[in-house]
Amino acid sequence: MKKSLGAKTLVYPTPAWIVAVYDQAGKPNAMTVAWAGLCCSDPPAVAVSVRQETYTYQCLLDRQSFTVNVPSEQYLKEIDFMGIVSGRNTDKFSLTGLTPLKSDLVDAPYIKEFPLNLECKLIHTLEVGLHTQFVGQILDVKVGSQFLTKQGIPDLKKINPVIFANGMYYGIGEVLGKAFSIGKNIAPPF
Ligand SMILES: Cc1cc2nc3c(=O)[nH]c(=O)nc-3n(C[C@H](O)[C@H](O)[C@H](O)COP(=O)(O)O)c2cc1C
Fold first, then answer.
1. From the CA of 83, how far away is ligand 1's center (Å)?
2. How many domains does the chain have?
3. What are phi and psi of 157, to 5 degrees?
């Protein structure tokens, strides 16, 4: 027997990512997003949903650029802080001590201390309701060399990203199996 929970934003997992932008004066700002995910393979694209009342919202429209920054678990307090205070009246970078670096390809800063950074050019906006979905074409992915495997692939264990669910933060679990592979055990592909 299943219990119906009604119309809710309830699905797992959702990320704890940081969207970074420049404001009109060139001040870097960053906000936490959980309503976000990859949305296209070709062109590679990511979608982040941002409310109009945030300071980041207008910056996204003005600059037509943003970065998605994937923080490690060790930055949990900073993740939370950037989702509590607004860049409209604070400088979140100077208060956290995080470092905004100029992107190579887009008009937005990325965060030095966070292992994985996506440089995104805004290609679509969709007014969904309370949130507007901003779709960014990923022009480059940057990763700290210490977060790569010997084969040069980003190492999820080293990156150690954070999951946001039910108002709590979680870490990632163990490797479970190889994708596009273990399913073949049920029956060979037809
Ligand atoms: C874990 C977490 C996830 C959040 N996810 C979103 C989100 O997906 N979209 C959104 O508009 N706000 C989200 N917020 C709230 C914003 O981060 C918050 O309003 C922030 O202060 C906006 O910053 P800004 O005014 O500098 O743009 C989230 C906050 C937290 C703590």
1. 4
2. 1
3. -65, -40
Which residue segment(s) compose the domain that 77 sits in?
14-185
Residue 1 located in a structural domain = no
Cα–Cα distance list, 106 to 17, 77, 78, 110, 141 (Å): 18, 27, 24, 10, 12
Q: For 21-56, how does the pLDDT look when each residue is reduced to its tens digit (9 = 90+)? A: 999 999 999 999 999 999 999 999 999 999 999 999
Separation of CA 12 and ligand 1 centre (Å) = 18
Cα–Cα distance measured from residue 127 to residue 169, given in angstroms and rounded to the nearest whole number: 28
| Per-residue pLDDT tens over the stretch 94-118 | 999 999 999 999 999 999 999 999 9
Question: Domain with 20 in it: what CATH number?
Answer: 2.30.110.10
CA separation for the pair 157, 147 (Å, rounded): 9
